[in-house]
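Reproducibility note. Readers wishing to regenerate the assembly model reported in the main text can use the exact inputs given here. Chain order matters: entities are listed in the order in which they were concatenated for prediction.
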Amino acid sequence: EPEVTQTPSHQVTQMGQEVILRCVPISNHLYFYWYRQILGQKVEFLVSFYNNEISEKSEIFDDQFSVERPDGSNFTLKIRSTKLEDSAMYFCASSSGTSGMAQYFGPGTRLLVL
Amino acid sequence: QKEVEQDPGPLSVPEGAIVSLNCTYSNSAFQYFMWYRQYSRKGPELLMYTYSSGNKEDGRFTAQVDKSSKYISLFIRDSQPSDSATYLCAMLAGGTSYGKLTFGQGTILTVHP
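Running the prediction on these inputs yields the following structure tokens for the assembly.
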């Protein structure tokens, strides 16, 4: 069964450093998303991406964040200068339909900023 | 008022029980409704999704939507210890929402043998 994969599973970084989180969406999906979940809190939407453009972004997704689809299979989230409050689980998701209803999530990357 | 409210529980039931999980919402723009299951430190796993008011059944799971009351439910029949997880409701607005899911807090469920 096809699935979304994410690397790395864990990342520890120093405050102010740049991190890149990587995702391989399900191969025939066209819509891609990033969410985050701070420990003990709700899953929160960050950004949606379609046709090489950001479709929508939340207020969390400020200038420190960027997304890219560098090739036909990978989808990345970059945090340019990490803050302590960026520590969270980051989930990539993908969907095939325009409604975004059936989104399939990856296992997540646990980011710890020290 | 929060857009999506979900009782965090925890909910503990014996094996074989019928489990009822619920969410309420305030945003009338929500048109699509999903239930996800999340095991500890794992990604959310899509269980069911629906658009219409009414019931949708898939095996031991039934999703129910009442748009007039802004209330959705997930029923699990013949619950098993392997159903122990956090259950998340998620909602999506119609129109130009571009796939932005809004999640509930999640309900922690334990099914004990």
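We highlight two features of this model. Chain A has no helices and eleven strands. Residues 84 and 113 of chain A are 5 Å apart (CA to CA).
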